UniProtKB/TrEMBL annotation:
Any one GO MF annotation of this record: iron-sulfur cluster binding
Protein name, entry field: Iron-sulfur cluster assembly scaffold protein IscU
GO biological process, one term: iron-sulfur cluster assembly
Biological function: A scaffold on which IscS assembles Fe-S clusters. It is likely that Fe-S cluster coordination is flexible as the role of this complex is to build and then hand off Fe-S clusters.
Residue ranges annotated for the NIF system FeS cluster assembly NifU N-terminal domain, each copy included: 2-127
Amino acid sequence: MAYSDKVVDHYSNPRNVGQMDKTLDEVGTGLVGAPECGDVMRLQIRVNPETQVIEDAKFKTFGCGSAIASSSLATEWVKGKTIAEALAISNTDIVKELALPPVKIHCSVLAEDAIRAAIGDWKKKNHVAETEGAV
Ligand code: FES
Ligand code: FES
C-alpha cells in the first residue's frame, strides 16, 4: 500500500516525539490502544492553567506509519489551541490532511482518542468538569 507524501513526511520526520513528566499538574497524558491491530499511542499536553491553552505536546507511538503520522500531526495541531479548540479536532480532519485510505482510518481514530484522553487526564488532575470546554 502506498503512503501519501504527508504520511511519509511525518513518518520520516516526526514532530514532537518525546515524553513529559506525567506527575506534573499541568501535564495531561493519554495512553490509548487500537483493538484492530494492537498499536499503542501516548500523547501528552502541557496546559496553561490560566488560559487553558496547550503550550506544548509530545507523543510516542508504537505502531504503523499512519499511526505515527497521525499522532505527529495531532501534536502539531493541538499546540497553541485551547482545550475547547483541541476537543474539536476530529479524526476525519486527520484522514483528510494525511489522505489516509479506509483501512488506515482507525489509525487516525487512535490520535483523536489520544487527544481526548490527554485532555480528560488534565481535567481530572485540575478538577475541571468533564463538560467544561466541551463542544
Ligand atoms: Fe502493525 Fe499497526 S498494525 S503497526
Ligand atoms: Fe493500527 Fe495503524 S494499523 S494504528
